[in-house]
Amino acid sequence: MRTRAVLTDEDIVTMGDAAVAHARTNQWNVTIAIVDDGGHLLWLRRLDGASPGTAEMATSKARTAALGRRESKIYEDVIRQGRTAFLSAPLTAMLEGGVPIVVNGDVIGAIGVSGVKSDQDAVVARAGIAALGVE
After folding, report:
1. 109 with 66: CB under 8 angstroms?
2. How would you class 42 by CB atoms within 10 Å of its CB: exposed for 0-12, middle for 13-18, buried for 19 or more?
3. The pTM is what?
């Protein structure tokens, strides 16, 4: 029988705190969402000044990364290159800012961020994941 890592409450708090710290250091008003491998919301934090719509977008970016098993930016790039059929995929936020959490080759969740430029959103997500010492 194969075993695999899962996100714990401690992992979620560690990643969330690191992502918040990174966003605050850069004075980025964002929302950060952490989901499990099934795209279910585990943690959400909307920083002061982040617009209300960022809460839904961050969650959707995280779900896209978790369910798609890859960064949400990949979908954005594929669509931008002309493969518009991807717009019918059952993923709701095919924009940069969703990053999967990968441990030993398994996607165990994802972090999605919304509120600044998409590449900056992804940087905040990666800062959270880096706090786990994986990927």
Report:
1. yes
2. middle
3. 0.94
